[in-house]
Design brief:
Blueprint: E1 25-34, H1 38-49, E2 52-57, E3 66-73, E4 76-83, H2 90-97, E5 100-108, H3 111-120, E6 125-134, E7 137-145, E8 151-156, E9 169-170, E10 184-191, H4 197-207, E11 211-216, E12 227-234, E13 241-248, H5 255-263, E14 267-274, H6 278-287, H7 298-302, H8 304-308, H9 319-324, E15 328-332, E16 335-341, E17 352-359, H10 369-383
Bound molecules: fe (ii) ion.
Length: 386
Amino acid sequence: MAKEVKSVEYGLEKIFEGAQDFLPLLGTDYVEFYVGNAKQSAHYYKTAFGYQSLAYAGLETGVKDRTSYVLKQDKIRIVLTTPLTQDSPLHDHLKKHGDGVKVAALWVEDARSAYEETMKRGARSFMEPTVEQDEFGEVVRSGIYTYGETVHIFVERKNYNGVFLPGYKEWKSDYNPEPTGLKYIDHMVGNVGWNEMNTWVKFYEDVMGFVNFLSFDDKQINTEYSALMSKVMSNGNGRIKFPINEPAEGKKKSQIEEYLDFYGGPGIQHIAIATDDIIKTVSQLKERGVEFLSAPPHTYYEAIPERLGVHMDMMKEDLAEIEKLAIMVDADEDGYLLQIFTKPVQDRPTLFFEIIQRMGAKGFGAGNFKALFESIEREQQLRGTL
Ligand code: FE2
């Protein structure tokens, strides 16, 4: 059963009981993707998801070996980076993993102390504290590895008022598609290998001071064919949530295993992005060509009033419209949530996005796991990887 930490509060200033405050995190700073063609990826994220041009680094700014486009929508910043030279180490990453998330950067007050405290507790170093400066001030960054080749970079920007980071210039574009209502990153999920989930749960507990506030075992997350296990890790103020998935034995291949095969090891499986109006957001995303997983069967929607119970009365959205858009609904004791999942956003069946609207609910849609995974399995079937 779901293990709950006492006095779970999402109020931003409430600290989870048991969480450590040696690593105060202010929020997600940015997410950096290594991609095969940053210019074209930037166009996709602007056109399809409504991100805005923010900053650029490359040959024109004196960077010789890579180019990076930075996009923004409300509180979300994504960086799309591609190598420019034949001998760039980024190629090794791309060859192994394909397009994917390299950096989940975390906003901190003090990047030196974040590094010292996590290294002292057993972290593996990615980047020693480094000061970067330009005419807008200075930024201190440091970084540690998490699962696979994925890293957390700690960003201290209290003495900086430039557009992104030193070395980047503002990117002014004549092409500015409208935003789609994406507001902030709700959670980022990692897939790890067989028997590795607890190792990484321990890493987030011991090295980063997080708490495990929800757990799901393979009895709870399974379909006729496959299964997985998942544990949700959160930092003390609840702003950073990293669920971790591990495959489990089933009759056929788990979607987590499919990910591990194609990504070449552990990595970020999906990024959940919050919106205040999922109907509007998803309608726009669909119009702009974002592909979502197919809808659960009609019986799923017929069962919603019963599944939501008391929360059905507070539901403002029209069920028929939700069904038409293939959005899923779940509830817990605190309220309900609406969510939908994209298909993978690159050629390999690896990273995808979730769009989520929380109406009080603090969970992750456990009531939808079965319908969701059946939908994923239909896709796996088409790929011949089930
Ligand atoms: Fe999720």
